[in-house]
């Protein structure tokens, strides 16, 4: 199955904790601190893989984590750094923050590799905290926590020209005739379930890339059918070939169809609807007596609006050469920079302000404080040392926990319990 969207959770590695230890050597009973530093946590890195053209790898696995850094050891041993996790995506993948929809990275053109989440720094061992007044520090610094983020991956096809039009107007047949693409062709709506890319070779030039954007239906801009799934692929194209069934073989009016499709484009993204269009009036091999009449009606309606009409037949090849050379010449004259989606969300800035939750409950007169931020702090703080205990008190104050305890009516002498530790409260 072709997959052009996926929602995943990415997590960087936690930094290893610094170690608390002291030298124990023969004839040196009270050696100094020698606790080593923790290793750095691994990064989450996205890279472009030329061999991929779908996001299928991310449809069946939801969570991707880098490796944590190792804790420091005795004898100044530094913990091993965690390994990065490398996530491979096809070119054209846009990475967005899932909740806000803001762009984090656009994996296109020169951007082949980008670190999205950095791993936590390793904590310092107690060897770093010895001073003249405190020669045996019994605490070390914890590693920085990991960072977790839910992201939306969207593959937006990169092509110079997009083929648009209702289903069954002959886009796939046209593409198979003019490029090396081999689209599946059948006669029912949504025949093409994903964009087919092909390269149009023009004599004496490098040609251009064309994408068959799957057939649209009315209401596509509002998400009807697979509307949004398909419309996003038009966002990078420089111009569009609008294919219509000039023969009306399915009882459709080609003029009416052109207006309907352009209305869908405008509703989805007005800027896209203003891009250059050329109209390919297809299936003229099915027109007999009224061929000239139909083509003249299309020209009268749309050429004053700047949309040139080319009568073609995907079945016989008639008119296609003229159309392709016109499109190629138009692209060469355009001074249009490639569409790149600028970064709007910066994980390193946003995530640093996210507070881990905690709760305060009163059980039989005891104030019970729990939550991941408390558990982490207790896990790397030596409460038996004076400095460690002062450090913990400062944390309780800075995080607003002491203020909330007072709001809940705590008084001097009351007991506070946190994960097996009990304290008497004093102001």
From TrEMBL:
Protein name according to UniProt: GTPase Obg
EC number(s) stated in the UniProt entry for this protein: 3.6.5.-
Keywords linked to the UniProt accession: Cytoplasm, GTP-binding, Hydrolase, Magnesium, Metal-binding, Nucleotide-binding
OBG-type G domain ranges (all copies): 159-332
SUPFAM superfamilies: Obg GTP-binding protein C-terminal domain, Obg GTP-binding protein N-terminal domain, P-loop containing nucleoside triphosphate hydrolases
UniProt entry tagged with the keyword Cytoplasm: yes
Subcellular location: Cytoplasm
Residues annotated as domain OCT: 344-427
Task of the protein: An essential GTPase which binds GTP, GDP and possibly (p)ppGpp with moderate affinity, with high nucleotide exchange rates and a fairly low GTP hydrolysis rate. Plays a role in control of the cell cycle, stress response, ribosome biogenesis and in those bacteria that undergo differentiation, in morphogenesis control.
């Amino acid at each position: 199955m072709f997959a052009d969207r996926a929602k995943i959770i990415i997590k960087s590695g936690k930094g290893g904790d610094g170690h608390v230890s002291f030298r124990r050597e023969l004839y040196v009973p009270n050696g100094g601190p020698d606790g080593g530093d923790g290793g750095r946590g691994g990064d989450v890195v996205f890279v472009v893989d030329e061999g991929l053209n779908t996001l299928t790898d991310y449809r069946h696995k939801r969570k991707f984590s880098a490796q944590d850094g190792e804790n420091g050891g005795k004898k100044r041993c530094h913990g091993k750094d965690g390994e990065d996790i490398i996530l491979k995506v096809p070119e054209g993948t846009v990475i967005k923050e899932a909740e806000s929809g803001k762009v984090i990275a656009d994996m296109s053109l020169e951007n082949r590799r980008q670190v999205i989440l950095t791993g936590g720094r390793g904590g310092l061992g107690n060897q770093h905290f010895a001073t003249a007044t405190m020669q045996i520090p019994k605490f070390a610094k914890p590693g920085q926590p990991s960072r977790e983020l839910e992201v939306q991956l969207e593959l937006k096809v990169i092509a110079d020209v997009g083929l648009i039009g209702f289903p069954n107007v002959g886009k796939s047949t046209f593409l198979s005739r003019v490029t090396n693409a081999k689209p599946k062709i059948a006669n029912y709506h949504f025949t093409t379930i994903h964009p087919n890319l092909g390269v149009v070779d023009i004599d004496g030039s490098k040609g251009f890339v064309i994408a068959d954007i799957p057939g649209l239906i009315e209401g596509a801009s509002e998400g009807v059918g697979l509307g949004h799934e398909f419309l996003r692929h038009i966002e990078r194209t420089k111009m569009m070939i609008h294919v219509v069934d000039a023969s009306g073989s399915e009882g459709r009016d080609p003029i009416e169809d052109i207006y309907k499709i352009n209305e869908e484009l405008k509703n989805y993204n007005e800027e896209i609807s203003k891009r250059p269009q050329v109209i390919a009036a297809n299936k003229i091999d099915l027109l007999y007596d009224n061929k000239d009449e139909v083509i003249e009606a299309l020209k009268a309606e749309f050429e004053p609006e700047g949309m040139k009409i080319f009568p073609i037949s995907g079945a016989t090849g008639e008119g296609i050469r003229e159309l392709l050379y016109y499109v190629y010449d138009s692209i060469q004259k355009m001074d249009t920079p490639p569409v790149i989606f600028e970064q709007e969300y910066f994980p390193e800035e946003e995530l640093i302000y996210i507070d881990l939750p905690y709760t305060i409950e009163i059980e039989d007169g005891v104030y019970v404080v729990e939550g991941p931020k408390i558990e982490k702090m207790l896990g790397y703080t030596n409460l038996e040392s004076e400095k460690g205990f002062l450090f913990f008190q400062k944390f309780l104050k800075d995080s607003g926990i002491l203020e909330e305890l007072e709001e809940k009516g705590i008084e001097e002498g009351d007991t506070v319990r946190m994960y097996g530790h009990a304290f008497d409260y004093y102001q």
